[in-house]
Amino acid sequence: MTDFLKSLPSHHPATNNKVPKANEALFAHPKYQQIDGVKFEHGTINQITGETSLNYSVPESFSGEDIKLVEEIIGSLVF
Length: 79
What we know:
Blueprint: H1 2-7, E1 10-11, H2 13-16, H3 19-28, E2 39-45, E3 52-57, H4 64-76
Antiparallel strand pairs: 1-2, 2-3
């Protein structure tokens, strides 16, 4: 059970600090109007691997195609 709990992502303040800059880059993307409503929310860390991530939210109304576009745009960001 302890390993399972450690495998769950937990908030990571250093990565949280990147959220404003990440959102700035996201909102400036030329295709952002097509995915309006998407935004980075917070940073997490996997306590076992040490890997950090920025987590984002998408509107509930988004379809599979919309989410595919979101992933493409987020994957192209540099910040």
